[in-house]
């Protein structure tokens, strides 16, 4: 078996030790990290781990660097939810296990039984991998709808003015004649 890396916030160190003990009993080599990698050897430790167990809690929610490492783990990631803090979108598709302080044995058993990533799924992206294209902004459809609405309201106001006063507010034929060169 390969090495399992447990990533947690400093406030969750006691629960990380408990998870490490449970995984060690199953025969896994476990390491705990309380901060995101800042140097290349630390980054390599995250990348070389066969499995990344990410303890998610309110304390971890503000750590963007650790969240990036969790997202980069891909199929190797197992999220352990320690409280009711909602998972961010990038982590919602990952394998998740709920671990409560009231009944930790059930969650620890589920974590120990969770499938580890196979050697074929553990891949590093090449360093020159192209960045994914940005998807189209959803607000562009709203802007075009707003422009169409303004044009419709303007046309209705123009017709209402012509109906009430008997003539349009601007003589369009004179304007068009002035535009011709």
Topology:
Blueprint: E1 3-7, H1 13-25, E2 29-33, H2 40-48, E3 51-56, H3 64-73, E4 77-81, E5 95-98, H4 104-113, H5 139-165, H6 172-179
Query: What are the segments in which pLDDT stays under 50 over at least 5 consecutive residues?
Result: 117-123
Terminal Cα span:
83 Å
Shape: elongated
Our estimate of the beta-strand percent is: 5-15%
Give the mean pLDDT.
77
Number of helices: 6
The major pleated sheet works out as: 5 strands, parallel
Quaternary state reads: single chain
The Cα radius of gyration reads 29 Å
- Briefly note the structural class of the backbone: alpha/beta
The strand count comes to 5
| Helix content class | 40-55%
Order of helices and strands: EHEHEHEEHHH
Strand order of the largest sheet: 2-1-3-4-5
Structural commentary:
By secondary structure, the chain is an alpha/beta fold. It is built from six helices and five strands. The longest helix has 27 residues, at 139-165. It starts with a strand and ends with a helix. The model is unreliable at 117-123 (pLDDT under 50).
Describe this protein with a few key phrases.
43% helix; five-stranded parallel beta sheet; 181 residues; alpha/beta
């Amino acid at each position: 078996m390969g090495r399992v890396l447990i990533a947690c916030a400093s406030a969750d160190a006691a629960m990380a030790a408990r998870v490490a003990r449970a995984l060690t009993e199953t025969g896994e080599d476990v390491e705990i990290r309380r901060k995101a990698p800042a140097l290349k050897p630390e980054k390599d430790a995250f990348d070389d781990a066969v499995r990344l167990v990410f303890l998610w809690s309110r304390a971890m929610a503000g750590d963007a660097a650790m969240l990036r490492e969790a997202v980069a783990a891909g199929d190797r990631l197992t999220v352990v939810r320690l409280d009711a803090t909602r998972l961010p979108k990038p982590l919602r598709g990952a394998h998740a296990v709920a671990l409560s302080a009231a009944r930790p044995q059930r969650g620890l058993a589920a974590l120990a039984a969770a499938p580890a990533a196979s050697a074929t799924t553990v891949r590093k992206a090449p360093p020159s991998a192209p960045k994914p294209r940005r998807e189209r902004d959803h607000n562009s459809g709203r802007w075009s709808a707003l422009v169409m609405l303004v044009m419709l309201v303007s046309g209705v106001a123009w017709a209402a003015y012509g109906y009430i006063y008997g003539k349009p507010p601007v003589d369009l034929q004179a304007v068009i004649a002035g535009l011709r060169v």
